[in-house]
Amino acid sequence: MGVVTDVTVTRAHDLDLAVGAADAAALAAGVTVRTVTDLRELGAVVDLFAVIWGRSGNPPITLELLRAFSKAGNYVGGAFDGDRLVGACVGFFHAPADDALHSHIAGVAPSATGRSVGFALKLHQRSWALLRGVSQIAWTFDPLVRRNAHFNLVKLATVPVEYLPNFYGAMPDQINGGDDTDRLLVRWPLEAPAVLAACAGEVSRPVVGAGAVVALGIDAGGLPVRGRLDGETSLVLVPPDVERLRRTDPAAAQRWRVAVREVLTSLAADGARIVGLDHDGGYVVRHTDAGEVLS
């Protein structure tokens, strides 16, 4: 009986730490983060996403779907600066046996960028999931967007698990610009030591080592340059700002899309996986056990 009590106390302590980390992140960002269920506020979430993605006539998510998600017990979270919604995140549960929440969409108002509102939202989502007995959150992001790669792999310590070519099909909005919607699927093991450290504000990067080879580099004109694919550890660089490149040189952005896709999927087929991001914004890809391969 004492063992059960000790486990229960330890679990309660861990949950308190998760809630405390979320509260601290919200305080640092100058926002209040909470779940959203009110119809008017759900409408504000729809409007916010429409502005962020530039899709007022065809918002990324509808009010009806948000209402259904919320009613069914899924996650709809909002970050508020006073009464003003400045960020939101929406997730739904995986199949029961998978023990995971899929975080489908998240965004922060342009006026609130640079304040770590997104970090506060993710930590709130993490505490919400842990309180419901969920051990992992999964989501996708565009692997060409370097700032998102840094946020997901460095700041949150997520684990890349699968490369998904043109996952959503064409999305002609302000963010995707009609480019192929390749995505990197990541999983966030909510109680892993690296995640606990990340939630406390610690960031870590993989040790690259002197023997790493450049599988994809950047030339003087900012275009991708294919390298070697035979290294035990490989570096796969991405453009500094692909969103701007899509506006100014769509052909170059497409060259990057194809190059990154071909190099990452080729390395994965040879038994390698992404283990993090280096200081220059390149993916660090390392050969490892077959059970850990990025597919």
What does this protein look like?
With 295 residues, the chain is of the alpha+beta class. The chain has 2 domains: 2-199, Gcn5-related N-acetyltransferase (GNAT) (Aminopeptidase, 3-Layer(aba) Sandwich), CATH 3.40.630.30; 213-292, no CATH class. It has 8 helices and 12 strands. It has helices at residues 2-29, 39-53, 63-71, 117-131, 146-155, 193-199, 242-248, 250-269; strands at 32-35, 75-81, 84-93, 100-108, 136-141, 159-164, 183-189, 213-218, 224-226, 233-237, 272-277, 282-287. The strands form 2 sheets. Strands 1-2-3-4-5-7-6 form a 7-stranded mixed β-sheet, sandwiched between helices. Helix 1 (2-29) runs antiparallel to helix 4 and helix 7 (242-248) packs across helix 8 (250-269). The longest helix has 28 residues, at 2-29. It is globular, with a radius of gyration of 20 Å. Mean pLDDT is 92; it is low at 290-295.
